[in-house]
C-alpha cells in the first residue's frame, strides 16, 4: 500500500530502492535487480538525463533518491548541486563487490534456478 511504502523504515527502504542490472551483469550473475549502494557505477535509462553514467555518491533513503557523480546543475548563485535520481530509473553497470554482496547474488541466483527447476517438473 502507499502508506506502507512511504512510511517504510530505512532497512526496508534499502530493498525497495533496488535497481536493475545491465544486460551483461544480468547474464553473468543470473540476477535481475539488487539494492543500489554507494560505489556502484550506474547509467541513467529514463528521464531527462538518459544515457548519463557515473558512480553512485550517496543513497538518500529518506528522500528515495540516489546522487550520481557528474550529475549536477548550477544554481543561480553559482553553487553546484547534485541532481536526485530515483533508483528505478537507472541500471547498474558495475557492482561494488563485497563478500556480503556475493552471497546475496549467489542466493538470488540459486532461488531463480530452483524456481526454474520446479516449473520444468510441474
The N- and C-terminal alpha carbons lie at a distance of: 33 Å
- The total count of strands amounts to 7
Strand content: 25-35%
Main sheet overview: 7 strands, mixed
Task: Tell me roughly what share of residues is in helical segments.
Answer: 25-40%
Mean pLDDT, all residues: 95
Strand order, sheet with most strands? 2-1-7-3-4-5-6
Gyration radius, rounded: 17 Å
Counting H and I runs of at least 4 residues, what is the number of helices?
4
Q: How would you classify the helix and strand content by structural class?
A: alpha+beta
Please provide a written account of the structure.
The model has no long low-confidence stretch (mean pLDDT 95). The chain is built from four helices and seven strands; from the N terminus they run ααβαββββββα. The protein has helices at 2-6, 10-16, 23-29, 99-121; strands at 18-21, 33-35, 41-44, 53-60, 65-74, 80-85, 90-94. A hairpin with a 5-residue loop joins β5 and β6 (80-85). The chain is globular and about 65 Å long. Strands 2-1-7-3-4-5-6 form a seven-stranded mixed β-sheet. It is 34% helix and 33% strand. With 122 residues, it is α+β, with helices and mostly antiparallel strands.
What does the secondary structure layout of this molecule look like, with pairings?
Elements: H1 2-6, H2 10-16, E1 18-21, H3 23-29, E2 33-35, E3 41-44, E4 53-60, E5 65-74, E6 80-85, E7 90-94, H4 99-121
Parallel strand pairs: 1-7
Antiparallel strand pairs: 1-2, 3-4, 3-7, 4-5, 5-6
Amino acid at each position: 500500500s502507499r502508506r506502507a511504502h512511504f512510511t517504510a523504515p530505512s532497512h526496508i527502504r534499502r530493498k525497495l530502492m533496488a535497481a536493475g542490472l545491465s544486460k551483461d551483469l544480468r547474464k553473468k550473475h543470473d540476477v535481475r535487480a539488487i539494492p543500489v549502494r554507494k560505489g556502484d557505477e550506474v547509467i541513467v535509462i529514463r528521464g531527462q538525463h538518459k544515457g548519463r553514467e557515473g558512480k553512485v555518491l550517496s543513497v538518500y533513503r529518506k528522500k528515495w533518491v540516489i546522487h550520481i557523480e557528474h550529475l549536477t546543475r548550477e544554481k543561480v548563485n553559482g553553487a553546484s548541486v547534485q541532481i536526485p535520481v530515483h533508483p528505478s530509473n537507472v541500471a547498474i553497470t558495475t557492482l561494488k563487490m563485497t563478500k556480503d554482496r556475493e552471497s546475496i547474488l549467489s542466493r538470488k541466483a540459486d532461488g531463480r534456478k530452483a524456481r526454474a527447476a520446479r516449473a520444468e517438473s510441474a
